Amino acid sequence: MLKSGIEKVGMLLVTVLLLAGCGEYEKILKSRDYPVKYERAVEYYVEGEYVKAATLFDQVADIYRGTTKADTVKYYQAMSYFGQRDYILAGHYFNELATTYTSSEYLEESEYMRALCYYELSPRPSLDQQSTFQAINAFKMYIARYPNSDKVEESMERIAELSDKIVEKSYNSAKLYYDLGYYKSAIIALRNSLAEYPETQYREELLYLVLRSSYLLADNSVASKKQERLQSTVDEYLSFKSEFPDSKYDKEAEKMYAETQESLEMYTTNN
Hints:
Number of helices: 12
Structural class: mainly alpha
Shape: rod-shaped
Number of strands: 0
Mean pLDDT: 91
């Protein structure tokens, strides 16, 4: 009974404290004492109360514009939204700080955080990669401006990670035409991907798919284009074989080559 009573008192005390805290926050929201708003906003940020902090910084941002604290307010405003994982708004405010307060003590960190916001917004490879390109450019710009920063190595690692995602996007997009059976379009898309990312980890597979697309296109070709496409398949085989003489696709490649040579000989003989 005594333990139960103590627990109830404890719960009641917590409730009272929470209500008191909410009451305090409501008073600050309605207050016109902007220095107090600012100080309390900083405290909320330090305490990890990012929603409350952001709301208060939003309220005082215009009041402190043009003052010596303007960049500080903008920095904490951005960081508060970053703490909420609202990377769009956070990136917007970091960008505002970097472009407006070019002499700010927060400039370097803001430029890095702006890049980090784009990084966090970068989606999986199957989706549009605009944020990925923005992140890569922002990190490159950061490295160029602050080559001695301790965040350079981390930035380079993130650029490599993001670049891999773009390469994968290019690979998936090109392979989609092949999977759908649009072999003429597949050849173009696969070659474009290889031309844009010649060092891609998918190079062997992409070249093999060019060969197979050429083979299937020739196999289903109209008579007027068959000889030309059969010869193209032979050329693709020779190109593939010269680059990957011991390919994991060797058995399939050899089979396509043999069948293409046979078809080409028959076509030449009959015509």
